[in-house]
Design brief:
This protein has 609 residues and is an alpha/beta fold. A hairpin with a 7-residue loop joins strand 13 (292-300) and strand 14 (308-316). Helix 7 (167-177) crosses helix 17. This is Glucose-methanol-choline oxidoreductase N-terminal domain-containing protein.
């Protein structure tokens, strides 16, 4: 029996996995229980508003796959925890299929990824996991809790003309979400009573590994011109606060230990799903309908002409969506509706929010008519302008001393986690470049990627280009069938190509210069020797921080989907609250920023805006 099978055998279930029986109406109906919708539903319910929360999956918040940080990739590839989308990265199929992760379905139904597919294999694309249980993708992600740079919030304020989006105001909402465990209570700019714990990884575990410490020392010298004097100094430098209030924290080159949504008390995920369950257990008026796939937002005409959202239609059953590993086309499901007395809020995420809007007749007119969907509101921005970060993996073969990754009594790191809820397995291991000593493989997502490859001599480092400027991605319907996942194409390197590729190249140079400076022998194992680095980057790039498919902008501007109050253009009583509204990929990873906008949406609703 594998370690993952043993862990799965210890799964604890929490809550009912059947759909709740709805009453006639609720104040708010919210679709999606992730950092946007789930957090908003809990806040509204605590304030006394009745909320009906529609979640396509079940509740897996007590499952070790979601709790233990190092097992998050397994959760992201396990049916019942996640959906597996297959996306295109390029409009040119020849370029797309140069990726070693490109996946095909063979004639016998199995999946193949690689550069030499079997004859007759159906091209699917690049695997792109998304959370599909209570808490959404925040329950299966790597738990990075990095707040966006101040200029991201100021960009939204300037774009919309709404000063409440300036970073000083948005910091209030971040503080309301956070329970910071790594700075003294009362530290300016941090919250200490929120529902998401934030902590720092174990900098001492990095410094304790001799070769890792030598590499980090060289990085400090090259990036910050600091000569590190001993282990204590290195730990002190790594523990500087990336989410601090200092305005210049992103301006120069700094090396941080990455804040993570990890609870020190449990040594695992700080879970919005657990918080949602606690709100229900406390008797607040929050009803969760599990295993419920939203299929349409129902609207009706009004006296003043603009349609009004008043209800949501959904189907009840497990594994109803084609991205679910349990999907069965012959399965039937009961269709139900639930009414909203005040508003409908869509929080399905960057892929599912535009899909649901288009299924409801809200989106680009030509796209809707192509699928025979009556046009409720022509909003061309829905499903367009999608963005993401780029990640380009690099891997060295170098002498390291990693944990055994057997997750048993013979694994000292696992024993340490069991006894103290601390150590390397309590840390996402992100340094600056998402470095992961001891892991093999080429990074990214493909069938079976979560099978941990123990390669004691490997040091894998995805280089993340955070602030890209490529808004060419699209989410389009394949059909009017709500159970069928949409067609997704990020159209990589379509805009701002030279700037993005040059930045990745310089980052790779810095990484290998640091290795050179250590004097430790190493070989570049991946992406391998290449004369044309530009082509190599395009072949191996991947991503997992999709945003902007229903982007925020000036009210009434049809190049944008929602206004600064989260209201959908052209439809009353309908808002979107999730990562799809960011006008560009936030410089920080989207987890913390999405929790932040959810809190802002809550305040907006409480103000009656």
């Amino acid at each position: 029996m594998t370690v993952f099978a043993r862990l799965l055998g210890a799964v604890l279930t929490a809550g009912s996995l059947t759909a709740a029986s709805p009453q006639d109406e609720y104040d708010y109906v919210i679709v999606g229980s992730g950092p946007g919708g789930g957090a908003l539903a809990a806040n509204l319910a605590v304030s006394g508003h009745s909320v009906f929360l529609i979640e396509a999956g079940g509740d897996k918040s007590e499952d070790p796959l979601q709790i233990l940080p190092i097992l998050s990739p397994v959760a992201a590839e396990t049916p019942g925890h996640s959906w597996q989308f297959f996306v295109e990265q390029y409009a040119d199929p020849d370029q797309a299929r140069r990726s070693p992760r490109y996946t095909y379905r063979t004639t016998n139904g199995t999946l193949y990824y690689g550069l030499d597919p079997p004859l007759g294999a159906e091209p699917l694309g690049i695997m792109y996991p998304r959370g599909a249980a209570l808490g959404g993708s925040s329950q299966v992600n790597a738990m990075n809790f990095i707040w966006a740079p101040d200029n991201e919030w100021d960009h939204i304020a300037n774009l919309t003309g709404d000063d409440s989006w300036h970073h000083e105001e948005m910091r209030r909402h971040f503080m309301a979400v956070e329970n910071c465990t790594y700075v003294p209570e009362g530290t300016e700019g941090h919250g200490f009573e929120g529902y998401i714990d934030s902590s720092l990884g174990d900098g001492a575990s990095i410094a304790a590994n001799d070769n890792a410490a030598r590499f980090m020392s060289e990085l400090f010298l090259q990036v910050e011109d600091i000569e590190v004097d001993g282990t204590d100094t290195m730990v002190e430098l790594l523990d500087r606060d990336m989410n601090g209030i200092e305005n210049d924290r992103y301006e120069g080159g700094f090396i941080f230990n990455t804040p993570a949504a990890i609870s020190p008390t449990v040594g695992g995920r700080a879970s919005i799903a657990r918080h949602i369950n606690s709100v229900v257990a406390a008797g607040h008026p929050l009803t969760i309908s599990f295993d419920s796939l939203a299929t349409k937002v129902l609207t009706k005409k009004t006296f003043w002409g603009k349609p009004k959202a008043y209800s949501v239609e959904y189907m009840v059953g497990e594994g109803l969506y084609s991205a679910d590993g349990r999907y069965n086309t012959s399965q039937t499901a009961e269709t139900r509706t639930v009414k909203a007395k005040k508003e409908v809020i869509v929080s399905g995420g960057t892929f599912n929010t535009p899909q649901l809007l288009m299924l409801s007749g809200i989106g680009p007119r030509d796209e809707l008519r192509k699928h025979g969907i009556p046009v409720v509101a022509n909003v061309p921005a829905v499903g367009n302008f999608m963005q993401d970060n780029y990640e380009v993996p690099a891997m060295n073969d170098v002498d390291l001393d990693p944990c055994t990754y057997t997750f048993d009594e013979h694994d000292p790191c696992f024993v340490q986690w069991q006894e103290t809820q601390d150590g390397p397995y309590n840390d996402d291991s992100d340094i600056l470049y998402l470095s992961t000593p001891g892991f093999g493989g080429f990074g990214g997502f493909y069938p079976g990627y979560s099978n941990i490859t123990i390669t004691p001599t490997s040091w894998r480092t995805p280089i993340v280009k955070m602030q890209t400027a490529n808004a060419a991605g699209t989410v389009k319907l394949k059909s009017a069938n709500p159970r069928e996942a949409p067609a997704i194409n990020f159209n990589y390197f379509t805009e701002n190509v030279d700037t993005d590729l040059q930045a990745i190249s310089e980052a790779l140079d810095l990484l290998f210069n640091a290795f050179d400076g250590t004097g430790i022998p190493y070989e570049i194992a991946y992406p391998g020797p290449s004369i044309d680095w530009r082509q190599a980057f395009m072949d191996v790039a991947f991503s997992h921080h999709a945003s902007s498919s229903c982007r925020i902008g000036p009210a009434g501007d049809l190049d944008y989907c929602v206004d600064s109050k989260f209201r959908v253009n052209g439809v009353d009583k309908l808002r979107v609250v999730d990562a799809s509204i960011f006008p560009r990929a936030p410089g920080g990873m989207p987890n913390g920023p999405t929790f932040t906008i959810s809190r802002k949406a809550y305040e907006t609703l409480m103000e009656g805006s």
